[in-house]
Amino acid sequence: MQNQRIIGTPQDRVDGRAKVTGAAPYVADFAAGQPILQAHPVGSAIARGRILAMDTSRALAVPGVVEVFTHENRPRTSWFGSSWQDEVAPPGQPLRPLHDARILHSGQPIALVVAETYEAARHAANLVTVAYEEEAHHTDLGLRLGTAYVPPKTRSGTTPPPKPKGDVEAALAAAPVTHQARYSVAAEVHNAMEPHATTVIVEEGGALLIHDKIQGVMNTQATVCAIFGLAKEKVRVVTPYLGGGFGSGLRPHHQCFLAVMAALALNRSVKLVLPRDHQFFLAHRPQTEMLVALGATRDGKLTAIRHDAIAGTSTYEDHQEVVVNWTNLLYPAPNVSLSHKLVKLDIESPTDMRAPGAPIGLFAAESAMDELAEKLGMCPLQLRLVNHADTDEVSNKRHTSKELRAAYRMGAERFGWQGRPLAPRAMKDGHELVGWGMATGAWEAQMQTHHARVMLDGEGRATVGVATADIGTGTYTILTQIAAEALGLPMARVTVLLGDSLLPKAPVSGGSWTAASAGAAVDDACARLKAELLRLAQKKGRLLGATLEDLRFADGAMARWSDAGTAIPLADILGESGRDSLVADGKAGPDMLSQLRYSSHAHSAVFAEVRVDEALGQVRVTRMVQAVAAGRILNPKTARSQVIGGAVWGIGMALHEEAQEDHVLGRRMNHNLAEYHIPACADVPDIDVLFVEEHDPRTSPLGVKGLGEIGICGAPPAIANAVWHATGRRVRDLPMTIERVLGLKDTPA
Ligand code: MOS
Fold this sequence. Notes:
Number of strands: 31
Bound molecules: dioxothiomolybdenum(VI) ion
Structural class: alpha+beta
Number of domains: 3
Distance between the termini: 58 Å
């Protein structure tokens, strides 16, 4: 029985004030102003080969430099390569920093300078000289497509493409209307505001207190313990805030291992904050080449779907994503062939980036659907409705809930889609061409096992703890709402603690699963606490015969629904039983039985307007509507913010973001925010977010599907389709840079 109206109402972020006043400590803020060693890495200048010799003498001579670590003098770590495999590592051997003389990618850390000041460390890092033995490298995906392979081992949590169905080639040959084209998406680099950083405090007795930029403190704790052979009790990881993760913080990165290594070797506290340019050689969204072929009847019903993808990965790990399955998830067909392959390149391993795989695959699929609609002379939205999937044909399961039709309807109405001219180049405003495009988004709704604890104190205040992270998504706020509503306390009397490895166990915060999972665990802990409160009250002869269902928790008290006069303040129950506090542990995880029978996804309908200046090739996104069906919305304010964040990234993916390699050097060249473009405020219009009511008790106990990733999924194809509608030019490669929009840089169809 719900007592209050806190869940589902717009609430300010409980950590908002701390963040804007600077009171919220990020990794680099810890131990600020204290005498702590500062570290700076040296990155490889070549993409592949060996280090023949390193000269660190000039670096060591810089006043304040304490040590320069290389593969030749590094301390010992675990013998087992598998010790580097963190909680979410893909199949393969993770990079071991300073392990040996091998160079696996440009920018790979090959030395670490540790000094009394940051300036000394940075200066000395420039004085390390290296003699390399270079080997021929491959960084150009386009030249290596012939080496594509199906990864032999499936990455945990990643669904490989299903077996082919029917006969796609025959169906394509027989189809009255077909469309086939290649599409590509460039590699993108995570550029969270907060750089990757690790602060390692060596405490008395040798225990380590680690502040690491990570989306799950327990992942860092477990991996550090495995690599350095440390007991869990000796390693505490505390990261209360992240300045954005977006997947780049799912795995502990080399700066963490280097900082811990230096701290242990020197027995001193060490801080390592990666400079922005080093961020560009840490992780990325993989570059992906795709082919899509669609066959349809004259009334638009799909008879054949082919979607093949080839993505780049490193030579040492098979980073796989779900790229092609979305096409068949959204659209059924009797003949389907989906494939996803990898190509090994001499680059660092890719890693997850907001909705890994989905906006890549959906860009191709939803662009192809738009092109098919054009050939059919049909409204693109009508084509989606004709092919709406009532069940999930990829897994052959029913949907737990799917209000995509309602999302199309609401989004189209808000945008004013009706009356859109079918032909391109039909709308003009001054010197600009105007275009309207739409696309569908989808993301899997998941739950992971989370534990939670709630403690009620004698003042009637509750403290909630979970080891998960708030990666900027609003986790502190929604967990506060959930506990406040469950216990009948005002939000101001609930404190949520996150990001500490001493708190109840949780996995990394990712995959949009945290609200559903951590939320349900907190709700469970609160239910157990209430049961215990009732038991204590009845011991004192109060509320005899009452069950939890008979009780209302409100205003810091519990009372029979039927009689407000029975109210007892929660603090009094503790007082009467002679306790200072009361603690309850909760847990929540996926419902395996339900997962066998049902598939669960969040969906979105995205509508975009662009204005294109044809003389300049400049594209501006001037309007966007996203109608999102994602189950229960815990907090419309933070939820809207999540969808907007994803949509802005979708604009960046569509128009700006591209990690550019010099393939002669095998090196990423635009490794700074001046040359690697992301949307600025002027690139972002007002984004209209609508939430479609969706009741879903099967996905998670709270009915929540998650929102961290759905906002990006349909945005890039909606923008690409709008650019076609404005100009008549189909750009099949992201980002749609000026030269591509002008048709000056085309790739073969
Ligand atoms: Mo997300 S890309 O799982 O942080």
